[in-house]
Amino acid sequence: LRELVSRLHQRGVQVFLVSGGFQSIVEHVALQLNIPTANVFANRLKFYFNGEKYAGFDETQPTAESGGKGKVISHLKEQFHFKKVVMIGDGATDMEACPPGDCFIGFGGNVVRKQVKEKAKWYITHFDELLKELEE
């Protein structure tokens, strides 16, 4: 993944992380991949003022609701005037974000979800497959 993101950056492609996971964890991954934290869209945890007791999650984040990943992609297309947005993911909510995304690549490198594998037009199990395509 690190190599794929690096090659995309070399080509001037912006990379975003859109996740139903929590911002604090996803931002850590983004930093490891040299993706700006401004390019992370994920759920935010809320804590009470003492900072220790969990108070829930921020329901105002688009990723906190059904169809939220698609809303993020629509927002990115409007904000940056992207002609094409490719979504790579391992889950049904990733697949459901196309449209508004223009292409979905199913990923089964961590876990194979039958529904994603069957419905994705392009399904990979290792990022080397995408690196090979970038070379051609």
From TrEMBL:
The yes or no answer to whether the keyword Amino-acid biosynthesis is present is: yes
Cofactor(s) the protein needs: Mg(2+)
Q: In which pathway does it act?
A: Amino-acid biosynthesis; L-serine biosynthesis; L-serine from 3-phospho-D-glycerate: step 3/3
MF-aspect GO terms:
L-phosphoserine phosphatase activity; magnesium ion binding
The record's Gene3D superfamilies line, in alphabetical order, gives: HAD superfamily/HAD-like (3.40.50.1000)
Keywords for the protein's UniProt record, in alphabetical order = Amino-acid biosynthesis, Hydrolase, Magnesium, Metal-binding, Serine biosynthesis
InterPro entries hit by this protein: HAD-like_SerB, HAD-like_sf, HAD_sf
Q: Can you cite a GO biological process for this protein?
A: L-serine biosynthetic process
EC number in record: 3.1.3.3
Q: Which domain of life is it from?
A: Eukaryota
What is the name listed in the Swiss-Prot or TrEMBL entry for this protein? Phosphoserine phosphatase
Q: Which organism is it from?
A: Aphelocoma coerulescens (Florida scrub-jay)
**Gene label:** Psph
